[in-house]
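Our preliminary data section would be incomplete without showing what the modeling component actually yields. Below, a chain of 61 amino acids is followed by its predicted structure, encoded as tokens that our downstream tools consume directly.
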Amino acid sequence: MKIAIVKLSAMGDIIHAMVALEYIKQSHPNIKIDWIVEESFKAILEHNPYIDNILTLNLKS
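Predicted structure:
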């Protein structure tokens, strides 16, 4: 199973949404989680062990 989280910006919202990732991975260990985020917020997500793939968008262009 694979899910994508689309949370493009708003740093506080991104941080709050990250809390659910550990629960999701523990409940479904084989799930793959992709996160779609604005390029400037990628660094917040990069070292999260529960995210399998980070896709970025440049909303400023």
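The chain has a mean pLDDT of 92. The chain is about 35% helix and 30% strand. Preliminary results of this kind motivate Aim 1 of the renewal.
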